[in-house]
Fold this sequence. Notes:
- The chain starts with 8 loop residues before the first strand and ends in a 9-residue tail after the last strand.
- By secondary structure, it is an alpha/beta fold.
- It folds into 4 domains: about 10-30 and about 175-320, Molybdenum Cofactor Biosythetic Enzyme, Chain A (3-Layer(aba) Sandwich), CATH 3.40.980.10; about 35-50 and about 140-170, Molybdopterin biosynthesis moea protein, domain 2 (Alpha-Beta Complex); about 55-135, Molybdopterin biosynthesis moea protein, domain 3 (Molybdopterin biosynthesis moeA protein, domain 3), CATH 2.170.190.11; about 330-400, Beta-clip (Beta Barrel), CATH 2.40.340.10.
- α1 packs across α6 (about 305-320), α3 (about 200-210) runs parallel beside α6 and α4 (about 225-235) crosses α5 (about 255-265).
- It is built from 7 helices and 25 strands.
- The strands form 7 sheets. It has a 6-stranded mixed sheet with strand order 15-14-16-20-19-17, with helices on both faces. A 5-stranded mixed beta barrel has the order 21-23-22-24-25. Strands 6-7-5-8 form a 4-stranded mixed sheet, with no helix packed on it.
- The protein is elongated and about 100 Å long.
- A hairpin with a 5-residue loop joins β19 and β20 (about 295-300).
- This is Molybdopterin molybdenumtransferase.
- InterPro entries: MoaB/Mog-like_dom_sf, MoaB/Mog_dom, MoeA-like, MoeA_C_domain_IV, MoeA_C_domain_IV_sf, MoeA_linker/N, MoeA_linker/N_sf.
- Pathway: Cofactor biosynthesis; molybdopterin biosynthesis.
- Its EC number is 2.10.1.1.
Amino acid sequence: MSADVNTPVGWEQARELAYQAGLAASAGAERIPLTAGDGRTLAEPLRALTALPAFPTSSIDGWAVRGTGPWRPVGRVLAGGTPPPLTEDGVCVEIATGAMVPDGAAALIRVEESVTGADGRVTGTPRPMPEWRLPGEEAELGEELLPAGAAVDPAVIGVAATCGYETLTVRPEPRAALLVFGDELLTAGPPGAGRVRDSLGPQVPAWLRRYGATITAVSGPVKDTLDAHLDAIRSALDTADLVCTTGGTMHGPVDHLHPALAELGAEYLVNTVGVRPGFPMLLARVPGPDGRPRFLAGLPGNPQSAVIALISLVAPLLAGLAGRPFTGDLPLVEAAVPVPGRGRDTHLALAALDPTGRTATPVGHVGSAMLRGLANAHGFVVVRPGVKVAAGDLVPFLPLPLLPGERA
Length: 408
């Protein structure tokens, strides 16, 4: 693909291109312990290994009765046991919540709605609806509970455990490395004397982890020479499916990323995106040392722009690599105030949500080089090209990522 920076790809198209590229490169599966599944992605459907429940299960503490009362107690049924059947009318057994209902039982009576007489017999009236769960009420044997591509979270782990799973078959976690370009950056202490502190090296790995990646390496600042860039990229590609770089996406005198990609035989998937902030950013496919494609995402050097590149290109790419579903559809929120557009580009406006999560208010300190606004925001109001947002309008909202496995 051409590297022409004068023809940026539309933001929504760029996200779809990144996702499809990742999905095409997604492959493989691994079996892991059930308890290690949080944040992973199912590689095959999760099916019920047995009917759920597997046997008729009491929903109450009380009595399992047969025939008409009063009933003569003949035993007790606790959870975890297999009771003998009730074979004659006029008898009952004491039963605990979660216990298996014996064959022959006609009804269950709650202990608080029963009376035990002086003769030891039990009287009471069963409720109209049965007080037990029937086999297969939640799922039939072999029924698909979750499809391949579903994200595993604690609730999914619980469902799998209920079915009797001890392991899960999941997609391999995408591996990501970060290279910080710009040998003028400080890596410790406060900025000064013409040098700024690197903020992307500490934060980008955390964003990548929230999008489901395993971090294999964080390196830099990389020296501002073509040879140093090539060496760093080749080294990162040895262990990573995705290499993210910071800075160097333009064509200045010390911007060596484009020449390095040409030297590596890379194919541009996206080269600049019509989004503000965030210009310029890129995504390229690089031949891997084992013949399997790898990816390089070029993030701008300005911190907020780099984060926008992450959510625009890296997040959908990682979703594809993990085999997860991805959709460009976003939830709608109400704009509390007017939000300006950016002409022919999409505008991602940092915003905070009210306690209801239904109204978004833009935050301050949102320059490309600023992070204060990002630290006070929940995500971005998406203003599409040519759109003017007025107070009260419903607008798409792109939330910042949760921790792996968390529900929105």
